Amino acid sequence: MGFSLTPAQADAVLSALKQDYRVYAPKRFPKQGRYSDTDVIRYAEVERFSDIVWDVKSDYPAKEVITPIQQAIFYFTEDEYRASKAKTKPILILARPCDINAQHIQAKIYAGNGGYEDLYYKRVRDLVKFAMMECNGGDDTCFCVSMGSNRTDDYSLALKFSADGVQVQVTDDAFAPYFAGMAEADYAPAFVEENQLKVTVPDLDDKAVRLALKSHPMWKEFNSRCVSCGACTVACSTCTCFTTRDVIYGDNPEVGERRRVSASCQIAGFDQMAGQKEFRSTAGDRMRYKVLHKFHDYKARFGERHMCVGCGRCTHRCPELISISATVSKVSAAVEEIKASMAQQ
Asked: Pick from 75, 135, 205, 275: CA 20 to 30 A from residue 197's CA?
């Protein structure tokens, strides 16, 4: 079931949807970028069709709707505590295929990690439906095709935007009434078939190769280059690391709330234990951990696919211009070097 809407009709549909859903989409925030006089595009509730940024990639991922940067998990007083309450109104998220695929990855971690189901993730995720925004191929940092995240069938609506309006495919009958009386159109979504950037993930199934790779000198480059700011993981579609923090109300240290706050394995001290022991004390060690987790460890644990969806946001956000695709290429070269050395022994 397809429809073709003018901007005015799209506004009318959005207004009707907002009666029943909280509608989130990429939205531009002028002058709030990290440099002077720059904008930032992130997910937020939208009020009208013109709020939706559809022609460029958002700076931050859709995961922030489901797992916010910080959220209250419970409130406490001197003698009791109470779990935070979740909103109950359903959520519609306008997202590209890579961001929808990223949520399948997050679900494995939050909702299926060793049989433990994360309440704070699940109670929001169960409210979510997706409207898939047709992608134009991204930019020169995208490599979704290489990671197999360029396609998805997990959507209730498919949308193709243009300056003249939006074409819609309705796959969930619950959304059909919102388009009653709209002009029908023969629209089926198209998916990206090729990116400008292509990435080949190295084969790390051989344990001996992995062990040799961990001590390869390529990682030392990042000791002087990476500033351990964590910007890459905050912008990542799939990273899930967090810490907790107590917020005290007023002068009473026994009254307040505990918050879950996004954290990063790339920041010094993230893995610090009692006695000030750190497993990854250098930027190179932390980069190695992140890259191997994204391109081997996650798949080895959960199967199916790698953790990276190829959105390229980490490359965009890095103040030192460290490219994840170039890093993976360096890993591939190191693996071939290691294999050749082993063959000669």
From this structure: 205
User: What parts of the chain have a pLDDT lower than 70?
Assistant: 112-114
What pTM, to 2 d.p., does this model score?
0.93
What is the distance between the alpha carbons of residues 57 and 61, in angstroms, rounded to a whole number?
9
Q: Is residue 9 part of a domain?
A: yes
Is residue 99 domain-resident?
yes
Q: What is the pLDDT of residue 112?
A: 67
Number of domains in the chain: 1
Q: How much is the CA Rg of the chain, to the nearest whole Å?
A: 22
Q: Would you state the pLDDT for residue 15?
A: 96
Domain residue limits at 162: 2-60+86-179
Q: Decide if 73 is inside a domain.
A: no
